Amino acid sequence: YAFPVDTLQDWVTYGDVFVTFTVTKAEPVPLSREDAERSEGVLTESYLTAEIEEIHWTRLGASSIPSAVTFTWLAAVRVAGRDIPAVTNSGQVLEVGNRYVGLFYRMDSDRWQPLASETLAGVGADGLVVVPGQAPSSSSQASIDGKSVSEVGELLSTTPQYVDFSADEDLTPLERYCRVAEAGGPKGVLGLDPCQVAATATSATSSAD
C-alpha cells in the first residue's frame, strides 16, 4: 500500500521511527527464470542493509528498531535488454557507504521498511538534511530540507497524529490508516480500499473457523 506521506502529520501517524542510517550492503533480489529471460518491462530490486546510527524520533508505542535492518529497494527497469537505473517518486538514490535519514515502519516481527521514498533524504557534510531534486515535492519534504537532523526530530515530536493512539497499541500502518479513515481523516492509499479488503479477509477467516 502507498500511505499518505505529504505532511509531517502523515509521517508521525504511519511511521514508527525516524533515524540516521548508513547503507552498508546491497545485494540483488534473485529474479524468476521467466523474468531473467525477458528483455523488457522487468523491475529489479536490491536487498539493502542499513546500519542504524541514531534514532531521532519514535512513535509512542512503537517497537524498537534493530541496530541493522535489511529492506528491498527498486534498483532498475529492463528496457530493450538493458537494466536502466530506476528513479523513485522522490528521486532519492540509496548508495552503499552514504548516510541518510529516513522514516521506517515495522512490517512484521522482524522486517522493517522505509515508509516511502519520499520519507528518505540525504545528510550533507554539514549535518543538514538534503532533499533530492531542485525543489521539495511535498510539504513534508519542504519542512525538513536544510534542517539539522535533531531539528527534524523535534518537529516530529511536536506534530500530532491524526488519531491519538494508545501507547500500548502497537498497530501496523494499515491498522492505523483504517482507524484514521473511521475518524474521518484524510485518505491517500492507492488502489482498492485496503480497510474494506482487510475487513473482508478477517470476516472470511472468522467464518472458516
Give your account of this protein's structure.
- With 209 residues, this protein is of the alpha+beta class.
- The chain has helices spanning 8-14, 33-37, 139-144, 149-157, 173-182, 194-208; strands spanning 17-28, 43-58, 68-79, 82-85, 99-108, 111-114, 120-123, 129-130.
- The two termini are 28 Å apart.
Topology:
Layout: H1 8-14, E1 17-28, H2 33-37, E2 43-58, E3 68-79, E4 82-85, E5 99-108, E6 111-114, E7 120-123, E8 129-130, H3 139-144, H4 149-157, H5 173-182, H6 194-208
Supply database-style keywords:
209 residues; alpha+beta; 8-stranded antiparallel sheet; 6 helices; 25% helix; disordered C terminus
Low-pLDDT runs: 200-207
Order of helices and strands: HEHEEEEEEEHHHH
Largest beta-sheet characterization: 8 strands, antiparallel
What is the arithmetic mean of pLDDT? 85
Number of helices: 6
* Global shape: globular
Q: How much strand content do the residues show?
A: 25-35%
| Number of beta-strand segments | 8
Taking Cα atoms only, what radius of gyration do you get, to the nearest Å? 18 Å
